[in-house]
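Table S2 (text version). Query chain:
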Amino acid sequence: MPRTLGASGPTVSPLGLGLAALGRPGYITLGHGEDLRGDRSVEALERQAHEVLDAAYLAGLRYFDAARSYGRAEAFLASWLKARGMRPEDVVAGSKWGYTYTAAWRVDAERHEVKDHSLPTLRRQWGESQTLLGPWLRLYQIHSATFESGVLEDTGVREELGRLRDSGVRVGLTLSGPRQAEVLRRALELQVGGSPLFSCVQATWNLLESSAGPVLAEAHAAGWGVIIKEAVANGRLTARNEDPALRPLREVAGALGATVDAVAIAAVLAQPWVSVVLSGATTVEQLQSNLRALEVKLGDEARETLRRLAEPPETYWAKRSALPWN
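Corresponding structure-token output:
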């Protein structure tokens, strides 16, 4: 069933495709290196990205998520949109500003991205994103807004985002870390020119990290679009993770005749405040497995079993930070 990205937003699909792992040769998802078929060249990754984008569109996905820091994700998405003759009304593309990719196409880079939430970075990266994605770019987000970066209190940044909003681009923010809920509460208060600055949030919510749920419900009630990332926790909620603590998840999946990742995504789709859940698939096979989530129906007993998998936010984010680039 189609959904809208917020109360007055464009029509989107319940599942979207995130390009974080398809736009660069290294990422922190478990087994990412194995998914690249031994060829990490720009040309090979572009072909693979197009294959997954083709499969996603054929399956009905209509929201595609990129960022300036995802290597060449925006360029790969743009070349696919143009090669397939997509019209601006055919899909919704979202991107983000605030991080710059610095790995130079190396997996062993000392730093893969550098964070900078300054006004000059916003202006530069908006121009870069718009040049690539043009009329398809309908949502532009602060990438991982935090209190530490000061981005929400920067008057110049807020005014510039207000101008983007007034030009017809939806303005949002993405969240990361154990203080997601606090940052979102602050963002819900912000106005520019007498109107709310933001109308969309992208946050982490999954079976292991569900702490932001109540505030995400508030955002939904306020008319915001709610996009969920990391539904399978960078591969921790897939068959690749043999952690004994996830045995209940494997048992629920087995009882339902579903894949582990499909059950994890289905648990997110079941939240009434969700607009879009992102698949981070790197291969067509992973995407097809993720898509099975649309068919999974979780009963009360299964939901209660899965609810008990949640970790303290600090534990979850510490484990995420320790995931190796591969």
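Notes on Table S2: The radius of gyration is 18 Å. The first strand starts at residue 3 and ends at 4.
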